[in-house]
């Protein structure tokens, strides 16, 4: 069975074809331009692919409330042309197959829970830490939506005592995204994160913010696994620093070996690597197919 | 149909009998002593009540993992006699009816979603702010458990700039519970919270901490309603102060009228008042009964 997948990002779209085992058989990517042009490219790519379902994991914020008249829209994004654009309704006009729709990070969380680092689990958090910070929540076997959808990249964290940087978030200044996403790192230190050496104090500071946010997320959501993806997390040396901060912040309060002796297997990179987003969209498509049966 | 309910607190146990409409028909309460003695009182109370199901909302931490051999235990509580005590297994020996078991705050969240302020909704958070801070999470129509269960009272918040108080939490010092629960208020100001006048700066400070925690919870969990109960929240003048802090912290980022113009109907007292806990335990019993059918 062939399943189409769209990883709809604000910078680029990745389209692919996979199967019910999460294997990616083909892929293509192109820059995100005006929605009419970009969606035409999506349609052209899938036209002869004989897919039986299609999953779309999208940049946001998006409307994922199935009861809403604007279900399937990208909503308040500042991205020119995309504000209140009916992405899913437009695709529905073309594809008469089950369509799955969720945030890019919820898609990645579902992908990781289906085929990746949280395989078989009914619970995980997926963080992407790159040009921004996003969080997908899979809990009790369901992707969490609620009022809008999780936007956990913008939680408030305490300042590192040596940090004088104001923060990059246009809404909150020094929220997690403002302090820990790539643009903030670059502005604070004057070089790209990828160019900072491993012994640079930037990394201890980065782990300070991420570890704090994860500790609070563990307390509030009690996830069974936390997966950290995105460009910044390509710096694998961050993982031990983050785990140490999490343990320090929890300070033995959460009575589970997972966050103590087992923490190396609790806070982990994506099992699907950089395919987490695209594989997650396959998982969304598969879920839509199964729900339609 | 009669449903038994136990609100198992660390200080007192409340037992009651209700029906499938959430009406409380009878109740009794007694101090929490050694578990054998207290559970004997529970058994004696229900013995002739002809209940068809029993729900127990318990102080914690507790084991709510149905796959665990210690399912139904109170676990790492420091309360003498109760550490690793098999509350639910002991009750199962006596009551051959469906038994519901969850945290006191998850019970209250379910009660509020069934008959209270979030009636009919598939999503709410229930905070109790009293001698401690606890959080129950009802999301996508399910009570959230995960690795252990939510312990969102211990999230880390930023310090109020005028606050020099160290914090009361034995694990984290100045976490939310350490700063905003009753004992912290009393130690900081030298009088009980209930004796502080409405124009005392304590309340602005209290709202600062609670509002910050709620803003981060909204970002991470996107609940459809937030219900604030517990002794401290009897100070109803706190509600507008907290709502103002939430709006200030979110700063327009969450695109929903619920957290803007509609915030007075979004962050609210329990619809079930001080019965939220006991009614929630009725709801747990009802759910166990329905699952057993």
Q: How would you sum up this structure in a few lines?
A:
Chain A is of the alpha/beta class. Chain A has helices spanning 35-46, 87-94, 104-115, 176-180, 182-189, 201-221, 238-250, 276-292; strands at 2-8, 12-19, 24-31, 53-58, 99-103, 124-129, 133-139, 142-143, 226-229, 267-268.
Blueprint of the fold:
Two copies of one chain form a homodimer.
Chain A: E1 2-8, E2 12-19, E3 24-31, H1 35-46, E4 53-58, H2 87-94, E5 99-103, H3 104-115, E6 124-129, E7 133-139, E8 142-143, H4 176-180, H5 182-189, H6 201-221, E9 226-229, H7 238-250, E10 267-268, H8 276-292
Parallel strand pairs in A: 1-4, 4-5, 6-9, 9-10
Antiparallel strand pairs in A: 1-2, 2-3, 6-7, 7-8
Explain what you see:
Two copies of one chain form a homodimer. Chain A is α/β, with parallel strands linked by helices. Chain A has two domains: 3-104 and 274-292, ATPase, nucleotide binding domain (Nucleotidyltransferase, domain 5, 2-Layer Sandwich); 117-269, ATPase, nucleotide binding domain (Nucleotidyltransferase, domain 5), CATH 3.30.420.40. Chain A is built from eight helices and ten strands. In chain A, strands 3-2-1-4-5 form a five-stranded mixed β-sheet. In chain A, a hairpin with a 3-residue loop joins strand 1 and strand 2 (12-19). Chain A starts with a strand and ends with a helix. At the A-B interface, strand 7, strand 8 and helix 6 of A face strand 7, strand 8 and helix 6 of B.
